[in-house]
Amino acid sequence: MAEAAAFWVAYLLSLLFLTWFLFQKRSRQHLPPGPQGSYLYGVKNQLPPAEPWKTYAKWSETYRSPIISFRVYNRTIVVLNDIESIHTLLDQRAQIYSERPMSWMYNVICGRGKSVFNIPASNPRHRIYRRMLQAGLGQRATKEAWDILREEAEVLVAGLAKQPEDWIQHIRRNAAGVIMKVAFGYSIASPEDLFIKVAEETSKISGWAMAPGRWLVDYYPIMRHIPSFIPGTQWKRQGLAWRERLNYLSEVPHNWVKQQMKKNNTYPKSFTSRFLQSHLDDEDGSVFSKLKSHQGGEDEDIVKWCAGGLYAGAADTTVSALTSFVLLMALYPEVQRKAGQEIDIVLGIEDGSVDSSRFSSPISDMEQLGALGYLQAVMKEVLRYAPVGNLALPHATLYEDQYQGYTIPKGASVIPNVWAVMHDPKMYHEPFAFRPERFTNEGSAEPDPRQFAYGFGRRSCPGSHFAETSMLLSMANILTFYSITPQESSLMEKTRGLEFTTGITSNIRPFPVRITPRRAASYAPPA
Ligand code: HEM
């Protein structure tokens, strides 16, 4: 016991010394301005639990600089609050600014350092991942997934007829249904489905293990060497248990695909099966045969991590955007009416001409989606008004850099404040008004928010094209069959101002809406 106590005293003293050393070093650097915070924690206790993007924008005003910095424990965090700094640093200097902040708990102790989201861009694997994801989610792949997208959009609108009050669950199910089929060729049967449970447990554990500020080892990585049998290292035992569980969970869908491929020739084609097969064939022109940097069993490991990244990327993002869309349609009936009218005109729909009892999608191909110009403007305005990723995801620097006379240290976390850009009055006239028309006036149209909604540089979202096709199709189907109105009490929301959820993804905080059939004729909900 005395030995353990001596160990901890020595340990804490060395941490204190390290903090002092880094503090001295930091105070000699000319960092961007920002709040100082306390000696030990930095601003950890000043970070608000909700909507931190607003606080960063305020600090940017207070310190009269679009680029600000502060410290949490010993880590320097730089926030970019305007498009100029974001574009210069994250896009133009992408070779320096495309790392991710190191999470020692998640990457090392839990063994998740190879995940698509966390792997450093300087690791050659990241390039391979990006090319595979491009092949699996780009324009051609999205076209190939059209039937899946259409089928799942039909399940969504049919579900809304049965339990309209559970509309968020139906949107959630739609996102999971699409991505499970695309990634693994797996059809989910119910919200209790094994694959859904596996994916949800993975993202829950990942959320705990990556929670910023929660694990001291993230700031003082030397702690990772402490043996887990020493008293007071419950955190390490927890991390190691999570490691085992996460490894097991990532095997479940991957092994299922392999079994299907072994069992029969008519197995469902998917991202995983295509890459596994192209590896077996080693066919010329496959992504693997072009990327010769891989060796032996590494290929399969790469496929597994990429397929895991598909679910992680798709699970909450389109759900957030569609949730905000439904709520905004309830609050802006004129926008809803115009979008519905466009659908009717472009698709030649008259009230009696859609079979509302079968919910078959009136949109037969991607070209028809392309013709819905107003609906596309609505989608852009949803992505601007209620950004899914208000802070995108943090990048980190590979080297020290200089910008406008400031030093950006090596290893600093660099956060683009997407919310500030989307609500910058220099870019968007009356930025807090929801007005899709800002994107329809040719010649005077405001900047396309999709340039900012999907992140930046070498880390920008590889799923953007796929996501937009999926979202537009769902939006068009919802507005074909349904009318969305606010409950009386919800009208207050508009006058009081909307609230937004806080997390890696964000959406308007849900309030009660009514989803009713838009076309009374021939409407008969399925039994
Ligand atoms: C509304 C829909 C979506 C939005 C707004 C969105 C936004 C983003 C953002 C902001 C990032 C971080 C970019 C950065 O670090 O600079 C990202 C990364 C990523 N997204 Fe998306 N996303 C969406 C849908 C999807 C979908 C449907 C998928 C997959 C099917 C996907 C897969 C990914 C992946 C794999 C990454 C990690 C890229 C990397 O770290 O190299 N996303 N996304």
TrEMBL record:
**At which positions is heme bound?**
C461
Cited SUPFAM superfamilies: Cytochrome P450
**Single GO MF annotation:** heme binding
Highest taxon, organism lineage: Eukaryota
Q: Give cofactor(s), names only.
A: heme
Coiled-coil annotated residue ranges, if any = none
Keyword Heme in record: yes
Pfam families named in the record: p450
Give UniProt keywords alphabetically.
Heme, Iron, Membrane, Metal-binding, Monooxygenase, Oxidoreductase, Transmembrane, Transmembrane helix
Check the record and name the InterPro entries matching this protein.
Cyt_P450, Cyt_P450_E_grp-I, Cyt_P450_sf, Cytochrome_P450_fung
Q: Do you know which CDD domains this protein is assigned to?
A: CYP64-like
Which pathway does this polypeptide act in? Secondary metabolite biosynthesis
TM ranges are 6-23
As for family, the record states: Belongs to the cytochrome P450 family.
What is the protein name for this chain? Cytochrome P450
